[in-house]
Please model this.
Amino acid sequence: MAFALYFELVRQIGPARTAYTFAVVPVMALALSALFEGLVLDGQIVIGAGAILVGNILVLSKQSPADLARGRA
Model:
């Protein structure tokens, strides 16, 4: 199921942008560990996870060079 969803994401937004999901997987693992295993989220973990999420938002909100070359605004 996960592979099917991943390949659908590749088809929809392209492989370059889909690769950024690999940065989010550890953040999801931390969240699940906090929920189900009792991991205590200290300040460093929260700041690191926030930096990853903000970085992904910034990168994925920018247009790709291919879109700019095609004149898409």
